[in-house]
Amino acid sequence: MQGLKLSFVTILLMTLFAACSSTKNNTADVDVNPINASSTTAEAAAVSPSLKQTSWKFKELIVDGKPVAINKDYRLTFADKDFGLKLDVNNCGGTFKIENNQLIIDGTSMFCTEMCCDSENAKILQKQLTSNVLYTIEEKDKVLIMTNKNSKMMWVSNMSIDKSIAGKRWKINNYVTEGKVIPLEKNYYISFIEERAVLQLDVNTCNTNYSVFNPNKIQLNPMGCSRRCCDSKEGMALLEQFKEVIEINLLRGVLTIKGADKTMSCTEVVVED
Fold it and tell me: What angle do CA 57, 78, 191 make, to 5 degrees?
Protein backbone atom coordinates (compact mmCIF):
# COMPACT_ATOMS: atom_id res chain seq x y z
CA MET A 1 0.00 0.00 0.00
CA GLN A 2 2.81 2.41 0.86
CA GLY A 3 4.45 1.70 -2.53
CA LEU A 4 1.13 2.40 -4.27
CA LYS A 5 0.86 5.80 -2.52
CA LEU A 6 4.44 6.69 -3.51
CA SER A 7 3.73 5.85 -7.18
CA PHE A 8 0.57 7.98 -7.11
CA VAL A 9 2.47 10.99 -5.67
CA THR A 10 5.20 10.58 -8.29
CA ILE A 11 2.66 10.52 -11.14
CA LEU A 12 0.87 13.60 -9.69
CA LEU A 13 4.13 15.60 -9.49
CA MET A 14 5.04 14.67 -13.08
CA THR A 15 1.62 15.79 -14.28
CA LEU A 16 1.91 19.15 -12.51
CA PHE A 17 5.40 19.68 -13.92
CA ALA A 18 4.20 18.98 -17.45
CA ALA A 19 1.28 21.43 -17.01
CA CYS A 20 3.65 24.18 -15.83
CA SER A 21 5.95 23.57 -18.80
CA SER A 22 2.99 23.79 -21.19
CA THR A 23 1.79 27.06 -19.64
CA LYS A 24 5.26 28.59 -19.95
CA ASN A 25 5.52 27.67 -23.62
CA ASN A 26 2.09 29.12 -24.40
CA THR A 27 3.03 32.41 -22.71
CA ALA A 28 6.16 32.67 -24.81
CA ASP A 29 4.10 32.17 -27.96
CA VAL A 30 1.72 35.01 -27.00
CA ASP A 31 4.58 37.46 -26.44
CA VAL A 32 5.70 37.30 -30.09
CA ASN A 33 2.70 39.11 -31.59
CA PRO A 34 3.07 42.47 -29.76
CA ILE A 35 6.63 42.71 -31.11
CA ASN A 36 5.38 42.21 -34.66
CA ALA A 37 2.61 44.76 -34.09
CA SER A 38 5.07 47.42 -32.90
CA SER A 39 7.26 46.75 -35.91
CA THR A 40 4.29 47.25 -38.22
CA THR A 41 3.44 50.52 -36.47
CA ALA A 42 7.00 51.77 -36.91
CA GLU A 43 6.87 51.01 -40.63
CA ALA A 44 3.56 52.85 -40.99
CA ALA A 45 5.02 55.90 -39.22
CA ALA A 46 7.77 56.07 -41.87
CA VAL A 47 5.26 56.73 -44.67
CA SER A 48 5.75 60.18 -46.21
CA PRO A 49 2.99 62.83 -45.99
CA SER A 50 0.52 63.04 -48.85
CA LEU A 51 1.35 65.12 -51.93
CA LYS A 52 -2.28 66.11 -52.40
CA GLN A 53 -2.99 69.84 -52.34
CA THR A 54 0.69 70.83 -52.34
CA SER A 55 2.75 73.09 -54.59
CA TRP A 56 6.53 73.10 -55.19
CA LYS A 57 9.29 75.19 -56.82
CA PHE A 58 12.12 73.44 -58.66
CA LYS A 59 15.45 73.42 -56.82
CA GLU A 60 17.81 70.76 -58.23
CA LEU A 61 18.05 67.86 -60.69
CA ILE A 62 20.84 65.27 -60.73
CA VAL A 63 20.97 62.66 -63.51
CA ASP A 64 23.51 59.83 -63.52
CA GLY A 65 25.36 61.54 -60.68
CA LYS A 66 25.74 64.86 -62.54
CA PRO A 67 23.76 68.08 -61.86
CA VAL A 68 21.60 69.38 -64.73
CA ALA A 69 21.87 73.15 -65.11
CA ILE A 70 18.39 74.63 -64.70
CA ASN A 71 17.89 78.21 -63.54
CA LYS A 72 14.24 78.58 -64.47
CA ASP A 73 11.24 78.99 -62.20
CA TYR A 74 9.60 75.59 -62.76
CA ARG A 75 6.55 74.70 -60.64
CA LEU A 76 5.00 71.33 -59.73
CA THR A 77 1.52 71.24 -58.19
CA PHE A 78 -0.73 68.41 -57.01
CA ALA A 79 -4.50 68.46 -56.59
CA ASP A 80 -6.40 65.38 -55.37
CA LYS A 81 -5.80 63.25 -58.48
CA ASP A 82 -4.29 65.63 -61.04
CA PHE A 83 -0.90 67.33 -61.22
CA GLY A 84 0.53 70.25 -63.18
CA LEU A 85 4.07 71.07 -64.30
CA LYS A 86 5.06 74.57 -65.47
CA LEU A 87 8.20 74.66 -67.65
CA ASP A 88 9.92 77.52 -69.57
CA VAL A 89 6.98 78.10 -71.89
CA ASN A 90 4.69 75.09 -71.85
CA ASN A 91 2.49 73.62 -69.16
CA CYS A 92 2.08 69.87 -68.67
CA GLY A 93 -0.43 67.90 -66.67
CA GLY A 94 -2.01 64.53 -66.05
CA THR A 95 -3.15 62.17 -63.32
CA PHE A 96 -1.16 60.56 -60.52
CA LYS A 97 -1.50 58.06 -57.70
CA ILE A 98 0.55 57.15 -54.64
CA GLU A 99 1.48 53.59 -53.65
CA ASN A 100 3.94 52.83 -50.82
CA ASN A 101 5.76 56.18 -50.97
CA GLN A 102 5.94 55.89 -54.76
CA LEU A 103 4.58 58.59 -57.06
CA ILE A 104 3.12 56.95 -60.16
CA ILE A 105 2.41 59.11 -63.21
CA ASP A 106 0.95 57.46 -66.28
CA GLY A 107 3.19 58.74 -69.08
CA THR A 108 0.49 58.08 -71.66
CA SER A 109 -1.91 60.40 -69.81
CA MET A 110 0.55 63.31 -69.51
CA PHE A 111 -0.19 66.14 -71.89
CA CYS A 112 1.70 69.37 -72.62
CA THR A 113 0.89 72.54 -74.50
CA GLU A 114 2.84 72.96 -77.72
CA MET A 115 4.03 76.54 -77.62
CA CYS A 116 7.60 76.87 -78.83
CA CYS A 117 10.00 76.18 -77.15
CA ASP A 118 11.16 74.65 -73.87
CA SER A 119 14.87 74.04 -73.22
CA GLU A 120 16.45 70.62 -73.59
CA ASN A 121 17.02 70.50 -69.82
CA ALA A 122 13.34 71.18 -69.24
CA LYS A 123 12.56 68.16 -71.38
CA ILE A 124 14.98 66.08 -69.30
CA LEU A 125 13.15 67.13 -66.13
CA GLN A 126 9.79 66.30 -67.68
CA LYS A 127 11.05 62.86 -68.68
CA GLN A 128 12.06 62.02 -65.09
CA LEU A 129 8.44 62.42 -64.00
CA THR A 130 7.13 59.92 -66.53
CA SER A 131 8.83 57.07 -64.66
CA ASN A 132 7.77 55.93 -61.19
CA VAL A 133 9.67 57.81 -58.47
CA LEU A 134 10.06 57.27 -54.75
CA TYR A 135 9.48 60.41 -52.73
CA THR A 136 10.04 61.78 -49.26
CA ILE A 137 9.19 65.15 -47.72
CA GLU A 138 11.60 66.76 -45.28
CA GLU A 139 9.05 68.70 -43.23
CA LYS A 140 11.62 70.76 -41.33
CA ASP A 141 13.00 72.37 -44.49
CA LYS A 142 9.86 71.81 -46.59
CA VAL A 143 11.75 69.95 -49.31
CA LEU A 144 10.30 67.31 -51.64
CA ILE A 145 12.88 64.73 -52.78
CA MET A 146 12.12 62.39 -55.69
CA THR A 147 14.38 59.55 -56.80
CA ASN A 148 14.31 56.89 -59.49
CA LYS A 149 16.96 54.55 -60.93
CA ASN A 150 19.18 57.27 -62.38
CA SER A 151 17.99 60.64 -61.09
CA LYS A 152 17.22 62.76 -58.04
CA MET A 153 14.91 65.77 -58.05
CA MET A 154 14.52 68.33 -55.28
CA TRP A 155 11.67 70.81 -54.92
CA VAL A 156 10.91 73.39 -52.21
CA SER A 157 7.48 74.31 -50.90
CA ASN A 158 5.60 76.84 -53.00
CA MET A 159 2.29 77.14 -51.18
CA SER A 160 1.07 80.58 -50.19
CA ILE A 161 -1.01 81.87 -47.33
CA ASP A 162 -4.55 83.11 -47.73
CA LYS A 163 -4.72 86.20 -49.99
CA SER A 164 -7.00 87.86 -47.45
CA ILE A 165 -4.10 87.67 -44.93
CA ALA A 166 -1.04 88.34 -47.10
CA GLY A 167 0.02 91.90 -47.91
CA LYS A 168 -1.93 93.43 -45.02
CA ARG A 169 -0.85 94.92 -41.71
CA TRP A 170 -2.28 93.30 -38.59
CA LYS A 171 -2.34 94.72 -35.09
CA ILE A 172 -1.64 92.14 -32.39
CA ASN A 173 -4.16 93.02 -29.70
CA ASN A 174 -3.96 90.31 -27.07
CA TYR A 175 -3.09 86.81 -25.97
CA VAL A 176 -5.86 84.27 -25.54
CA THR A 177 -4.94 81.73 -22.87
CA GLU A 178 -7.29 79.16 -21.31
CA GLY A 179 -10.31 81.18 -22.39
CA LYS A 180 -8.91 84.40 -20.88
CA VAL A 181 -8.07 87.48 -22.96
CA ILE A 182 -4.87 89.23 -21.87
CA PRO A 183 -4.55 92.62 -23.65
CA LEU A 184 -1.13 93.89 -24.73
CA GLU A 185 -0.10 97.26 -23.31
CA LYS A 186 1.73 98.54 -26.40
CA ASN A 187 1.11 98.53 -30.16
CA TYR A 188 2.58 95.59 -32.10
CA TYR A 189 2.08 94.70 -35.76
CA ILE A 190 2.70 91.72 -38.03
CA SER A 191 2.66 91.54 -41.85
CA PHE A 192 3.22 88.74 -44.36
CA ILE A 193 4.59 90.28 -47.56
CA GLU A 194 6.31 88.49 -50.47
CA GLU A 195 7.31 85.46 -48.41
CA ARG A 196 8.64 87.58 -45.56
CA ALA A 197 7.14 88.05 -42.11
CA VAL A 198 7.65 91.54 -40.64
CA LEU A 199 7.07 92.06 -36.91
CA GLN A 200 6.95 95.62 -35.53
CA LEU A 201 7.72 95.76 -31.81
CA ASP A 202 7.46 98.88 -29.64
CA VAL A 203 10.89 100.11 -30.89
CA ASN A 204 12.57 97.64 -33.25
CA THR A 205 11.41 95.96 -36.44
CA CYS A 206 12.11 92.26 -36.97
CA ASN A 207 11.71 90.19 -40.11
CA THR A 208 12.46 86.82 -41.67
CA ASN A 209 11.55 84.78 -44.72
CA TYR A 210 9.03 81.97 -44.43
CA SER A 211 7.73 78.97 -46.33
CA VAL A 212 4.23 77.52 -46.37
CA PHE A 213 3.59 73.78 -46.37
CA ASN A 214 0.00 73.92 -45.18
CA PRO A 215 -2.19 76.98 -46.01
CA ASN A 216 -2.62 77.57 -42.26
CA LYS A 217 0.89 76.68 -41.13
CA ILE A 218 4.02 78.80 -41.68
CA GLN A 219 7.64 77.75 -41.19
CA LEU A 220 9.72 80.73 -40.01
CA ASN A 221 13.46 81.16 -40.19
CA PRO A 222 15.08 82.94 -37.19
CA MET A 223 14.02 86.59 -36.91
CA GLY A 224 16.54 89.36 -37.48
CA CYS A 225 15.85 92.68 -35.73
CA SER A 226 17.04 96.28 -35.92
CA ARG A 227 19.20 97.35 -32.97
CA ARG A 228 17.62 100.50 -31.65
CA CYS A 229 17.39 100.52 -27.88
CA CYS A 230 15.20 99.19 -26.32
CA ASP A 231 12.08 97.07 -26.59
CA SER A 232 9.98 96.37 -23.52
CA LYS A 233 9.87 92.99 -21.78
CA GLU A 234 6.40 92.58 -23.23
CA GLY A 235 7.76 93.15 -26.75
CA MET A 236 10.64 90.72 -26.28
CA ALA A 237 8.23 88.09 -24.93
CA LEU A 238 6.06 88.61 -28.03
CA LEU A 239 9.09 88.06 -30.29
CA GLU A 240 9.60 84.66 -28.65
CA GLN A 241 6.23 83.54 -30.01
CA PHE A 242 7.47 83.81 -33.59
CA LYS A 243 9.82 80.85 -33.63
CA GLU A 244 9.94 77.99 -36.12
CA VAL A 245 6.26 77.22 -36.85
CA ILE A 246 3.17 79.39 -36.38
CA GLU A 247 -0.43 78.56 -37.28
CA ILE A 248 -2.73 81.23 -38.71
CA ASN A 249 -6.51 81.35 -39.18
CA LEU A 250 -8.79 84.17 -40.32
CA LEU A 251 -12.39 84.15 -39.12
CA ARG A 252 -14.85 87.05 -39.32
CA GLY A 253 -12.06 89.59 -39.73
CA VAL A 254 -10.03 88.35 -36.75
CA LEU A 255 -6.63 86.80 -37.46
CA THR A 256 -5.61 84.20 -34.90
CA ILE A 257 -1.92 83.30 -34.67
CA LYS A 258 -0.82 80.31 -32.62
CA GLY A 259 2.79 80.90 -31.61
CA ALA A 260 5.38 78.99 -29.60
CA ASP A 261 3.13 78.57 -26.56
CA LYS A 262 0.47 81.29 -26.79
CA THR A 263 -2.34 82.25 -29.15
CA MET A 264 -2.60 85.84 -30.37
CA SER A 265 -5.61 87.72 -31.68
CA CYS A 266 -5.12 90.36 -34.41
CA THR A 267 -7.22 92.83 -36.41
CA GLU A 268 -6.40 94.44 -39.74
CA VAL A 269 -5.05 97.99 -39.71
CA VAL A 270 -6.95 99.93 -42.37
CA VAL A 271 -5.89 103.41 -41.23
CA GLU A 272 -2.61 104.07 -39.43
CA ASP A 273 -3.03 104.63 -35.67
Answer: 55
